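Technical annex, item 7. During the second reporting period the consortium partners agreed on a shared format for inverse folding records so that results from different sites could be compared directly. Each record opens with the tokenized structure and is followed by the designed sequence. A conforming record, contributed by the partner at site C, is shown below for reference.
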């Protein structure tokens, strides 16, 4: 009976199934499986999902994150990754730097990760604090999800990620004048993102097939031609600055949204004109919709 109780109940399970189980465990828990035996140590090293996500009180999470980053990188070596999810925490010294987070991002790219999720997790801050390194270079990265971080660059070029297909930007500060990707197919800018309010963000994504843009603060982005676009959901609510703040149509305040028209390079929403299905929602005070051309091309519905 004793021998039976000591038997590894997972011993008969194939590696593929155990890798699947490990893919759901946070890095802290997954690392602890290494003490079971040498098989588990090898299983953990070759698991293709790395989750730096922590539960529990703020300070234990913060401390544990700092303790784990370098040992995990050292022990895993160059084993391939498919997905890496990182809750970022600032370092102790110097204050408010993110050296460990940057190490993890570089490590994930070196391990040829196909999906990268980065979110600011420190609850002491109400606004995004981590500046994502924008010189991301990867021949393998297909999906990027950014949450509560800063995109503090004049030009968001994703040319270094030639197979990037999905980009989600959620509750982020976007300071860029241009965002561009030749390969991007799905773009989601959602949940209270802050966009430029003086110079309009210009989005160049000629391969885009799906767009979601809603609940943002700032000027509506200028969308370049998107000939492959199939579906789009655009919600210009009260946070959109494309209106006269004095409700006069045109006022004397030259930084007001009423002075952003006309757009010399073309119409503001020109990129949406090829969509097969479009949900376009705007408040009556929003300006510039008389400039949207060719809405007769839209096949399914327009909600305005």
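Designed sequence (site C submission):
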């Amino acid at each position: 009976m004793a021998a039976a109780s000591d038997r590894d109940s997972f011993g008969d399970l194939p590696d593929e199934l155990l890798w699947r189980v490990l893919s759901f465990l946070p890095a802290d828990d997954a690392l602890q499986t290494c003490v079971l035996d040498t098989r588990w140590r090898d299983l953990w090293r070759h698991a293709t999902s790395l989750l730096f996500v922590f539960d529990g009180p703020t300070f234990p999470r913060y401390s544990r994150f700092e303790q784990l980053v370098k040992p995990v990188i050292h022990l895993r070596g160059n084993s391939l990754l498919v997905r890496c999810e990182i809750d970022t925490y600032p370092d102790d010294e110097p204050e408010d730097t993110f050296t460990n987070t940057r190490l993890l991002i570089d490590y994930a790219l070196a391990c040829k990760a196909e999906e990268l999720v980065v979110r600011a997790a420190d609850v002491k801050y109400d606004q995004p604090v981590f500046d994502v390194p924008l010189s991301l270079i990867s021949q393998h990265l297909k999906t990027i999800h950014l949450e509560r971080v800063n995109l503090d660059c004049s030009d968001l070029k994703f040319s270094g990620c030639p197979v990037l297909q999905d980009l989600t930007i959620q509750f982020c500060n976007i300071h860029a004048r241009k965002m561009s990707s030749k390969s991007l197919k799905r773009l989601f800018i959602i949940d209270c993102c802050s966009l430029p309010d003086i110079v309009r963000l210009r989005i160049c994504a000629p391969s885009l097939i799906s767009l979601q843009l809603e609940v943002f603060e700032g000027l509506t982005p200028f969308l370049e031609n998107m000939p492959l676009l199939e579906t789009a959901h655009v919600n210009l609510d009260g946070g959109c600055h494309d209106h006269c703040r004095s409700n006069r149509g045109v006022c004397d305040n030259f930084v007001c949204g009423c002075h952003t028209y006309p757009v010399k390079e073309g119409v503001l929403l020109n990129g949406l004109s090829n969509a097969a299905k479009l949900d376009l929602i705007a408040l009556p005070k929003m300006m510039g919709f008389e400039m949207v051309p060719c809405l007769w091309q839209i096949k399914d519905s327009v909600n305005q």
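The radius of gyration is 23 Å. Confidence is low (pLDDT under 50) at residues 290-304. All partners now use this format for quarterly exchanges.
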